[in-house]
Design a protein that fits this description.
The complex is a heterodimer of chains A (about 325) and B (about 325).
Chain A: H1 9-27, H2 34-43, H3 45-59, H4 67-83, H5 88-112, H6 117-136, H7 146-153, H8 165-181, H9 183-193, H10 195-200, H11 205-231, H12 242-252, H13 264-283, H14 290-322
Chain B: H1 2-7, H2 12-30, H3 37-62, H4 70-87, H5 93-117, H6 122-141, H7 153-160, E1 162-163, E2 167-168, H8 169-187, H9 189-199, H10 201-206, H11 211-237, H12 249-258, H13 270-289, H14 297-331
Antiparallel strand pairs in B: 1-2
The chains are: A mainly alpha (about 325), B mainly alpha (about 325).
Chain lengths: ~325, ~325
């Protein structure tokens, strides 16, 4: 099999990631130190997990802005049920179940009721976080068993690998295979390219979208468990604003906002790129506030670059035609 | 029956107005203070900022775009003006009212160039500028806050000014902006173009509507309104820090959508958007009056928004099938 390097956005993002790593390790002393790499991985863990679900949604041409609120609701229910005497395994299951249910509600409203996913998930963004607020109020719960907080925070033995990393890698491989090597993944891409055509080709678009929404919720539930244990706190404003980071990571990774295009490695590179730039800025002791600006600029580049490249290509083709 | 059908509101705004009156009435029954002059004035004062932003956002949503950067722009303008006033003690409200919209327009021009010029998806672009503008506030503010002492007394006085005992100056301006934009959107060619663009962007382009110019100007207008809203923010709260109005962009979208400005584009009015903003505020005031915890506020907002889009969808389907039936009848 010949490996052909396509010059698309998701391959160039890998090059960009490499550039950032080289530049960062040249300009700082300890960027590639084990502790810092470990930090990058664990700081981006929830975003990565949610992005695994959201990438499928964006590829089908939908969007979910409620993932971070789902995370918060799951996390709050975890804390609430644990504080009310539920065993920790049950509390974790409740968190994941709540997340799955939230995702299903989104999917139901979008597909069966036929409302636009942007508007619906803006609504559920407020709704889910509001319920979390209503349940927990200003309370926070931060007494959890050591084993589980260790899972969120500690590394394996004395190595630099966070304990949660193997789980994320497993999910990454699983979802990567699902997207790129199964009929399910092909159907996802087909729906994104043209929902009409996909329907005529015999794909049950409604069912497919509900499934994708539901497992995005499921992944947000898992991210909720991880977030709760990593910070050892369950409160209503957990993960506030993360939804925009998740979406910007996906778009950075070359997923088209119009649907139909996207790769798993691109998204992972996108998440790591955002995480690495942030860590680089922190190590250079650049004012933390600049990070917000950098996120915004990266996001703009991620949408503008493909368009500009296409325009340049078109202009070139036109010039070639003329001569 | 005949009488009842004559009473039935013809427009979306009419039915929303009736819902608003009913909500105000019910809230007033539960908590009589709500219907007094003070209560009404509070309602208007607290709605002014969101209502103004919703008016600015309405043309954009009508064109099937969105502007998520408004809340950051409010923060930027409010902080910047407070900073200028602190450095130039001779500033009065006049300078604030001129500089505010100008700062907002800069953000609007940036959005407009990216969305209309490069034809990038507005959701992503304005998400990006949301971050960039808020980041700019963080960086330039350097954690400096401003309080009432640093602000021009004439501006704060104007913020306190109330006409007829119930109508604050800020909301009077909101009503003025609402009427002017509603007239413009309904009777001017440029306004009608917005609806055409939102109904079918491609067709609008083919029939020769200046899509770039209209989209660009809509973003500049929204930016200017956000700038003015920043001035309103100062007039209302008389203090500002770098997180002012953080995360309120979705509340603005919600107000417009609840007011009948469809997110799919092509329909809605600025009057509806204003009523939507008032309705959200009234319902929250009403729920607070019957003793619902303030923590549920966001949940209620979200729920209202979903109900509003659902109602919108059902009404659209109904009118669609009615139109279809009419056409079939005409053919026969």
């Amino acid at each position: 099999m010949k490996f052909k390097l396509r010059l698309t956005w998701d391959t160039s993002i890998l090059a960009l990631l490499a550039t950032v790593w080289i530049a960062a390790s040249l300009t700082t002393d300890n960027f590639l130190s084990s502790i810092n790499v470990s930090q990058i991985f664990s700081n981006t863990s929830e975003i990565t997990i949610m992005a695994f679900g959201v990438i499928f949604l964006i590829i089908t041409g939908e969007i979910d802005l409620s993932v971070a609120s789902t995370l918060a609701l799951g996390s709050s229910m975890l804390g609430w049920s644990y504080a009310h005497g539920a065993p920790i395994w049950l509390a974790i299951l409740i968190c994941i179940a709540v997340g799955t249910l939230c995702g299903f509600i989104n999917g139901f409203l979008v597909t069966k009721v036929g409302l636009g996913s942007l508007a619906v998930t803006i609504g559920t963004l407020a709704l889910y976080r509001g319920i979390a607020n209503g349940v927990l109020g200003k309370n926070t719960i931060n007494e959890f068993p050591d084993f589980w907080t260790g899972f969120g925070f500690d590394t394996i033995g004395t190595s630099f690998i966070p304990q949660s990393l193997p789980v994320i890698i497993l999910f990454g491989i699983g979802f990567g295979l699902l997207l790129h090597n199964t009929p399910f993944g092909r159907r996802t891409l087909a729906i994104g390219q043209s929902p009409e055509a996909a329907r005529f080709a015999g794909i049950n678009v409604i069912k497919h979208k509900i499934i994708v929404f539901t497992f995005t919720g499921f992944m947000s539930g898992i991210a909720g468990v991880l977030y709760t244990f990593r910070f050892s706190t369950a409160q209503a404003d957990n993960g506030i604003g993360l939804e925009l980071l998740v979406i910007s990571a996906c778009l950075l990774g070359g997923v088209s906002i119009f649907g139909g295009i996207g790769t798993m490695w691109g998204v992972i590179a996108g998440v790591l790129l955002a995480g690495s730039v942030e860590s680089w800025l922190t190590l250079r002791e650049i004012n933390a506030q600049w990070r917000t600006i950098v996120t915004g600029i990266l996001l703009l580049i991620s949408v503008a670059a493909p368009v500009l490249i296409n325009k340049a290509k078109a202009a070139k083709a036109k010039a070639a035609n003329k001569s | 029956m005949n009488f009842l059908s004559r009473l039935k509101p013809r427009s979306r705004e009419g039915s929303l107005g009736i819902i608003l009156v009913i909500t105000v009435g019910v809230t007033g029954l539960i908590n009589p203070r709500f219907l007094t002059g003070d209560g009404t004035r509070d309602l208007f004062t607290s709605t002014a900022v969101v209502a103004l932003l919703a008016i600015g956002m309405a043309p954009i949503i009508i064109m099937r775009h969105i502007d998520l950067s408004v809340a950051s722009t409010v923060g930027l303008t409010a902080w910047f003006i407070a900073d200028l006033c602190a450095k130039h003690p001779d500033f009065t409200w006049v300078q604030c009212f001129i500089i505010g919209p100008m700062i907002g327009m800069v953000v609007g021009i940036l959005n407009g160039l990216l969305v209309a010029g490069l034809r990038l998806p507005s959701l992503v672009v304005t998400l990006g500028t949301l971050y960039i503008v808020r980041g700019a506030v963080y960086v330039i503010s350097n954690s400096v806050d401003y309080n009432a002492q640093e602000m021009p007394p004439s501006l704060l006085d104007l913020g306190q000014k109330v006409f007829f005992g119930i109508m604050p100056f800020t909301f009077l301006l909101v009503i003025f902006a609402m009427l002017v934009t509603a007239w413009f959107m309904k009777y001017r060619k440029a306004g009608r173009d917005c609806y055409a663009i939102g109904s079918n962007p491609h067709a609008a382009d083919l029939v020769g509507i200046k899509v770039f110019r209209r989209t660009f100007l809509a973003y500049v207008f929204s930016g200017a309104m956000a700038g003015l809203a920043g001035v309103f923010y100062l007039m209302r709260f008389a203090q500002v820090d770098s997180t002012a109005f953080y995360g309120q962009e979705l509340a603005v979208v919600a107000a417009a959508v609840i007011g009948g400005v469809t997110i799919a584009g092509g329909s809605g009015t600025t009057i509806g958007a204003t009523i939507g903003a008032l309705l959200v505020q009234t319902i929250q005031g009403g729920l607070a009056a019957i003793g619902v915890d303030a923590f549920w506020k966001s949940a209620i907002n979200g729920f209202l928004l979903i109900v509003a889009i659902y109602a919108d969808r059902t009404l659209a389907r109904k009118s669609e099938s009615a139109l279809l039936a009419q056409r079939i009848k005409e053919r026969a």
